[in-house]
Amino acid sequence: MTRFSSARLSGTLIVSLLLAGGVASPATAAEIVTPYPTVRAEAGQTSTFDLQIHSDEREPVQLDITDAPDGWDTTFRGDGREIEGIYTDPGGTAEAQLDVDVPEDVEPGRYEITVSGDAGSGDDSLDLGLRVVEQAADAFELTTDFDTLRGGGSDSYRFDLTLVNRTAQEATFSLSAAGPQGWNVTASPSSEQQAATVTVDGGSQSTVNVEAEPPENVSAGSYEIGVEASGEGTTLQSTLTAEITGSPSMTLSTASERLNASGNAGETGTVTVTVQNDGNAPLQGVDLSASPPSNWDVTFEPSTMQNIPAGESAQAIARITPSGDAISGDYVVTVDASTEGGNDSMEIRYTVETSGWWGLIGILVIVAAVGGLFWVYRRYGRR
Questions:
Q1: Which of 103, 135, 142, 164 would be a feasible disulfide site paired with 42, CB 3.0-4.6 Å?
Q2: What are the pLDDT digits (tens) for 124-155?
Q3: Same fold, 140-244 and 250-356
Q4: Mean pLDDT, residues 177-203 taken together
Q5: Secondary-structure class of domain 140-244 per CATH
Q6: CATH classification (class only), 28-133
Q7: Strand 329-339 vs strand 342-353: parallel, antiparallel, or unpaired?
Q8: What is the pLDDT of residue 24?
């Protein structure tokens, strides 16, 4: 019993001395792990694996893909940058991400990718799996609560659309919008008016603003605006409508754009009157009238313009007859154009000139007076 106890004590002492002498176990090779080695993916999307690299030494670990399906793109990232290797610290964990771009034309099924790590302490590999499934029909959606807006021809139309991402990963879409010829239409995320793309987090949604400005002198009516969001292997479309209500507007002028005319007393002169429709709806039943001096007569041919389309004009002849006893000088004739949608007026300065007959009569009177004086001189001048 004593001999056995002594031997046992000696063995225990030897083990204790070896441990106290610092005899260490061999170092562990670098190891690559991930909390989710198999994920669900959809064609045309990017799946991301979070990688953790462990090592008992501070050393660089070279990362590589040693096995992947043909046509699949992979990228290692660290802190948002593309990387090819990573440093480890003893007792710590180095983190990296692997982005796997699933082609749009890939068939549903299970696919595997192998990640390798080459380190001085030893190599390691990690098998990752992706189960590609068909994209749900409602994975993404582009909607709006108000797809029709109503306003005038000079208004700007702003639509708010919602881009919904029902998948588990973020999705990026390119935005585009187009309207009728002459319209200025833009589409952008609400957070950045100058951007042409929008990124939506998984299970989230973003607002897209669409602004449309009609051209000048646009006619009343309904105008369609098309919006597209393209990305993630799909194209989302939405059709918006801008309804422009009619607002006629008129401008009254003369064909020569001169607001003066002339004529003799009692004689009829003509002025061509022009009514311009500056609005975006037809002018209906435009009545012409005038306010001339007393005893003057003004008529129009025609006196009513039945229809003037938007952006066009119509003409009428104004026949102005001063009174027969009007003396020479300038007179004002006010011309009015009125309709249910509005009215306009202008003043024409009408100059009454002396008739040529009165000039001839004056000359004859002068000649007669001179002749009479001459006769008087001849008859009585020598006495």
A1: 135
A2: 999 999 999 876 667 899 999 999 999 888 88
A3: yes
A4: 91
A5: mainly beta
A6: mainly beta
A7: antiparallel
A8: 42
